[in-house]
Each structure stands twice: as C-alpha cells, then as structure tokens.
Amino acid sequence: MNNLETVKKWYPNAKTTEDTINKLLDVIESELGLKPKQLMHADSMCCDDVNAIQYPPRAYEMLGPFHMGGLNGYPFAGVTGMNAFAHHVPEDGAVVVFYAPHIGITKDGTIGEIHRIGQSANSACCGAAKGALGKLLNNQIEEGNVTDLDYQMNTLEQIFLKQANRIKNADSQIFEATEVMYEAIDERIETLVSKTNYPCKYVVLIGAIFINGDKDMGSFCSYKRFDYINLETNERKSLLEGFYK
Predict the structure, then answer these.
(1) Which DSSP symbol is given to 66?
(2) pTM for the model
(3) Read out DSSP for 166-198?
(4) pLDDT attached to residue 1
(5) Pairwise CA distance, residues 208 & 31, whole Å
(6) How far is CA 155 from the centre of its chain?
(7) For FRET with 160, which of 55, 167, 178, 179 sits at 20 to 30 Å CA-CA?
(8) Separation CA 202–CA 226 (nearest Å)
(9) Do residues 128 and 150 lie in contact, with contact meaning Cβ atoms separated by under 8 Å?
C-alpha cells in the first residue's frame, strides 16, 4: 500500500501537499484570473517544526506567508494579525487564507504520531492536541482556566472541554479532537474575516486538515472548504467541487 492510500483510510479526499498546492494555484488562476504574485498568502497552522519542514515549496510563489497560527493552527494572531496582513495585499489581487489543524499518520496507518528526522521512535503529532486530549480524558481541565503562562495550550484545552462527550465517545479520540479543532478554527477565521477590511478584489478561504507523514513520507492535505468572496458584490462561491474534479 502506498503512503497516500494509507492516509486516505482516514481522509478519503486527501492529496499530497505538492498536488494540493499545484491544483490550488491552477483553480485560482482559472476561476479568478490571478497569478501567484497577485496573491497575498496567510496561513493559520501549528508552529510545530514539522510543518515548516513539510511546507510546500510552490506556496512561496505567492506573497508571504504571514503566519497567523499558534498551537494546532488556532489563529492566535487575532484581529490585529488579520488586519495587518490584509493591508499588504496587491490591490488588483486577492488574500488567500489557508487554515488547518494538523495530525500525524505513520506508514503503518497509526494516527496521531509520526517518525521524525533523527529520532528512533515515533512522537506525538500534534503534540499539543494529544496533550490537551490526555488532560481531557483524565478530567484535568478546569473550565475557564486560561493562564498567561500557557495561554495557547489552555485555549486548546477549553475548546476540547466544550466538546468533551463527543471526543471521549469517538472511535478515534485524536481524529475527533482534530475535527473539533478544525471547527473552532473555521469559526474564528470567519469572525476575523468579518472584522477586516481588505483593499483588494477577493478573499479566498481554504480550510483543511494538514496531515504529516513519517520523515520520508512527506505531507498531505484534506480540504474541507475552498471559498472565495467577491469583495465588490459580497458574493461567496465554493470552488471545492472544481478542486476535486
């Protein structure tokens, strides 16, 4: 079984990250008539080093990226971050916001961990999500407890706590926790977009699960949303069907 087939057991619509970024840029050019250099790119992804290692090279053909994400991809840069990067965009172009929690899948199909470079054993991926999940399962999360010392981790814990029963009762708790995380990120991105003025033609929103493989597997992506908003008419259209054609 090849690596993509292993990933597709969990995420049936996954593509390799390389194929994903190639198709993304093709669809934006065909639908909106925009080249990569007209696109200001922001991502909201986990600060885990594996995401930097597995970042798709073609993404750098766009302007950016502006990094909005902290632990497990939650957009901790907030309204200030979204507004800051929005004002860097070419006036005849578009803002492209890619947001995704990440999760590891090993060659043998184990979810929630990967084999990293230079290590003899697997390690957690996303480590923060697995840490928060562990605390949830042990009933160690206190409602409303968000501290300055561990603000981002505490925020993840609170997100999981709100969906405790759903996560605890799932067949794969780390898979379900990642779905919960995606929904929280998606909701927050929508709020940030609504509070931002973009001096360009379009905003493109891409929501996904970013899937890390073992050190020699590369990475993969499962899209959940691919919308663009026409800022002149406020019309929103999904490009997801065309992306998966």
Answers:
(1) E
(2) 0.96
(3) HHHTSSSHHHHHHHHHHHHHHHHHHHHHHT---
(4) 66
(5) 20
(6) 17
(7) 55
(8) 13
(9) no
